């Protein structure tokens, strides 16, 4: 019957020229629904013989009532489905937001860890350069000492 919000529809009932069929204007009915409406049923769900007029036609008022009941059931089913879609839509949206927040926190943690590693690498590079300079100083000093010893 279509999704979307509930809307008001104008439905008219009229009998055809033979008075055997009630014509419902403004409503689409599936063959399955029409077959179910033709089947006899009582409010308790039990079947009973159809009420027929002298000409053998189904009681028009009963048919109108059954059509209205079927339309109400279909509307209730549609509303229930729409409510479920809204509920699950909200649930999915909350899950998406939570997932995005979790992902954002993980990215920020990773960026912080990367920055910390970069700074640590810079510190180690500076320490290595200082050790290298110190070793070069010692190397120059010992070469000088060796040269003096060789002169003696």
UniProtKB/TrEMBL annotation:
GO biological process terms on file: inner mitochondrial membrane organization
Predominant subcellular localization, coarse grouping: mitochondrion
Recorded GO CC terms: MICOS complex
Keyword Repressor: no
Subcellular location: Mitochondrion inner membrane
UniProt keyword terms in alphabetical order: Disulfide bond, Lipoprotein, Membrane, Mitochondrion, Mitochondrion inner membrane, Myristate
Top-rank taxon: Eukaryota
Region entry Disordered, spans: 29-61, 113-133
PANTHER family: COILED-COIL-HELIX-COILED-COIL-HELIX DOMAIN CONTAINING 6, MICOS COMPLEX SUBUNIT MIC19
Name of the protein in its database record: MIC19 protein
Source organism of this protein record: Eudromia elegans
């Amino acid at each position: 019957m279509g999704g979307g919000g509930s809307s008001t529809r104008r439905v008219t009932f009229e009998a055809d020229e033979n008075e055997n069929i009630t014509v419902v204007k403004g409503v689409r009915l599936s063959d399955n629904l029409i077959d179910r409406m033709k089947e006899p049923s009582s409010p308790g769900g039990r079947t009973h013989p159809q009420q027929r007029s002298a000409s053998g036609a189904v009681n028009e008022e009963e048919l109108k009532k059954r059509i209205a009941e079927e339309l109400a059931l279909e509307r209730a089913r549609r509303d229930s489905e729409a409510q479920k879609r809204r509920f699950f839509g909200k649930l999915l949206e909350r899950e998406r937001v939570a997932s995005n927040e979790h992902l954002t926190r993980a990215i920020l943690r990773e960026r912080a860890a990367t920055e910390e590693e970069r700074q640590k690498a810079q510190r180690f590079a500076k320490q290595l350069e200082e050790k290298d300079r110190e070793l070069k100083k010692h190397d120059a000093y010992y070469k000088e000492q060796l040269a003096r010893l060789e002169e003696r």
